[in-house]
């Protein structure tokens, strides 16, 4: 039996669950509700200033969350990679186990922590510092994004650092490099593929999320994912919501493909560029 036949189930899965939905989205995005004829009216509606403001807000929060995840995730991954393998495996499970829990349950837990009568405010009251507004703020949304997607930053970087050839580090040390120079000239450049992978795995989900902004941000911080959901579920097909929602989804698809192309470009550049000491 030829090996190519083993790819048939995967090809069918791709066709049914990825390609077909994308075709449906483009069909609704570029056709009118009344006659089904080709039109750009849905795209024009999706590009109106109100919707673009929501998209820019989503981009802003996604960038903030991704940067925080990078600054938190890289040191964690670095220290894990320098631990004995058995201890590192046990500690890495602390980041993996919460991912086994339902996404919404993890977010609901943060609602209880950040609530007016939540754990943080109870601690502040006990210290006579008074209550602060944590829920329904931009900060709460960022906290929810960082908490839920931080493991997606840590694990790719950790895998790269763990597999990094020790000979490169030893060679840099033998040439007289300090610990700082070893990190900046050898370790970090060699870990760039993991960093790019982590950024991609965090940025794309955060820009498309909708549950976190709804639960932790309330109605004050509508993101692009909330906007798309609203068009499909609240506006509905009868009022043209499906067509506008498909246009919004198409714009998001284009943005995601651009982000992935940029990430792949930098990834290949790092692989071909080598390391300088």
Write the layout of secondary structure elements.
Blueprint: H1 8-29, H2 41-46, H3 49-81, H4 85-96, H5 103-114, H6 119-126, H7 138-162, H8 166-174, H9 179-208, H10 211-217, H11 224-235, H12 241-273
Helix pairs in contact: 1-12, 3-7, 3-9, 5-10, 7-9, 7-10, 8-9, 9-12, 11-12
Descriptive report:
With 277 residues, the chain is mainly α. Helix content is 75%, strand content 0%. It has twelve helices and no strands.
Defining key terms:
mainly alpha, MetI-like fold, 0% strand, globular, disordered C terminus
In short:
The protein is mostly helical and 277 residues long. It has helices at 8-29, 41-46, 49-81, 85-96, 103-114, 119-126, 138-162, 166-174, 179-208, 211-217, 224-235, 241-273.
Q: Main beta sheet, described?
A: none
- Which runs of at least 5 residues are low in confidence (pLDDT < 50)? 273-277
Helical run tally: 12
Q: Report the β-strand fraction as a percent range.
A: under 5%
Please bin the fraction of helical residues: over 70%
């Amino acid at each position: 039996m030829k090996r190519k036949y083993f790819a048939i189930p995967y090809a069918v899965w791709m066709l049914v669950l990825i390609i077909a939905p994308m075709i449906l989205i483009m069909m609704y995005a570029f056709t009118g509700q009344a006659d089904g004829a080709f039109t750009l009216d849905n795209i024009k509606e999706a590009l109106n200033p109100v919707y673009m403001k929501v998209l820019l807000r989503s981009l802003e929060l996604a960038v903030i969350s991704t940067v925080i995840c990078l600054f938190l995730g890289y040191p964690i991954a670095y220290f894990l990679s320098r631990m004995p393998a058995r201890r590192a495996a046990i500690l890495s499970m602390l980041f993996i186990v919460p991912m086994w829990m339902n996404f919404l349950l993890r977010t609901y837990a943060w609602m209880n922590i950040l609530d007016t009568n939540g754990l943080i405010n109870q601690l502040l009251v006990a210290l006579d510092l008074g209550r602060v507004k944590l829920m329904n703020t931009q900060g709460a949304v960022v906290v929810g994004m960082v908490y839920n997607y931080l493991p997606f930053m840590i694990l790719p970087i950790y895998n790269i650092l763990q597999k990094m050839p020790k000979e490169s580090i030893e060679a840099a040390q033998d040439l007289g490099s300090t610990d700082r120079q070893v990190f900046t000239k050898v370790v970090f450049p060699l870990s760039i593929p993991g960093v790019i992978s982590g950024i991609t795995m965090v940025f794309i989900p955060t820009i498309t999320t909708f549950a976190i902004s709804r639960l932790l941000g309330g109605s004050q911080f509508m993101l692009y994912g909330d906007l798309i959901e609203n068009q499909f579920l609240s506006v509905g097909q009868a009022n043209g919501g499906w067509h506008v929602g498909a246009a919004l989804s198409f714009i998001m698809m284009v943005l995601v493909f651009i982000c992935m192309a940029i990430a792949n470009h930098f990834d290949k550049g790092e692989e071909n560029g080598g390391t300088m000491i």
